[in-house]
Each structure stands twice: as C-alpha cells, then as structure tokens.
C-alpha cells in the first residue's frame, strides 16, 4: 500500500519524504558540473535518465565571507529593504484608495514608514549581536564528490556509455 506521502512504487515520481537513494554507482565525479555533464551525455544517448540519481557525498557547508559589516552598511541595507516593503504597501494602499485627491500620498507614506521601520529593525538586530558577527557571508552546501546512481536493470549500459564519455576530451561541448 502506498501512502499519499511517499512517491515510492511510482516510477518517475521522487519521494516526498527524505529517503536514501537507491541504485548502483555508474560514475563518480569531483564536481556537480561533471555529474550533470555525465547525465546529459546519458540523455543524449537515449538512456532512461529517469532511473538516474545524482548523489552528493561528504557534504560540507561552505560559508564565504563577502565583506565587513559596519553600522553604515547595516542601516543602509535596512533602509533599502524597508523602502521596498513600504513602496509595496503604499502602492497597494493607493490602488484601493477611492479618494481621487490622494495622489501619491499613500505611496510616499508607505515608503517613509517602510524606511523608518527598516532602519529600526536593522539597528536592533545588529546592535543585539554586540560585535559577535561583524561580517556578511554567503553559505553554500557542497559535496566532496558526486556519485551517479542508476537502477540495476540499466546500470551496465549506463557504465558503458559513461566509459565512452570518459574517453572524450573534457572541453567538448558538442552534442552527439
């Protein structure tokens, strides 16, 4: 019996709950781009790619520092994000305003209040950190390697095709 929460037992439908991948390894690559290239090569060879899974192994969270945080940068970013939200609210208010003489009043009020609240919230957030995180960063989940798995019924053919790909130069971008 299949529950409505699982895609198991239905080919081509990924499971809705986290489940370990299944299949036999047919290739292993150092980068995600190489694993994508392998699956693309399989697709070009009329391989049933719906039986293929790319699995990132040895996951790591990489946080790249993009800059130093200062009060000026924090308040400027808060003002900008508040301005966008205030502009949105102001435009909505002006659309539903039935008074013809209102003009741009609701938009300007929304923009002004949005900037003020954006600065206040940014200042409170940054001030409460008390200098413990004075930098900006971008986080990314990266794998140490990317394995391409395939269902057993097609694994041998998949390995054979990927062996042909491995013999080609890496910079070839043409389709077969």
From TrEMBL:
Top-rank taxon, per record: Bacteria
Identification of the protein by name: General stress protein 17M-like domain-containing protein
Pro residues bias (residue ranges): 12-22
InterPro entries: GSP17M-like_dom (IPR025889)
Annotated stretches, region: Disordered: 1-22
Record's keyword annotation contains Transferase: no
Keywords, ordered alphabetically: Membrane, Transmembrane, Transmembrane helix
Annotated TM spans: 74-96, 102-126
A Pfam entry, by short name: YflT
Species annotation: Saccharothrix variisporea
UniProt domain General stress protein 17M-like: residue ranges: 26-100
């Amino acid at each position: 019996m299949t529950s409505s929460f699982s895609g198991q037992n239905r080919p081509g439908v990924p499971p809705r709950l986290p489940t370990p991948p299944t299949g036999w390894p047919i290739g292993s690559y150092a980068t995600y781009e190489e694993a994508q290239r392998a699956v693309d090569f399989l697709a070009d060879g009329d391989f049933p790619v719906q039986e293929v899974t790319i699995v990132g192994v040895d996951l790591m969270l990489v946080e790249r520092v993009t800059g130093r945080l200062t009060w000026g940068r924090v308040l400027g970013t808060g003002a900008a994000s508040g301005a966008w939200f205030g502009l949105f609210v102001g435009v909505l208010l002006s659309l539903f305003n039935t008074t013809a003489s209102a003009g741009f009043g609701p938009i300007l009020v929304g923009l002004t209040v949005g900037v003020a609240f954006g600065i206040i919230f940014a200042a409170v957030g940054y001030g409460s950190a008390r200098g413990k995180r004075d930098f900006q960063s971008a986080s990314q989940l990266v794998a140490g390697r990317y394995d391409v798995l395939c269902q057993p019924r097609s694994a041998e053919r998949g390995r054979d095709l990927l062996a042909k790909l491995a013999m080609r130069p890496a910079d070839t971008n043409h389709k077969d």
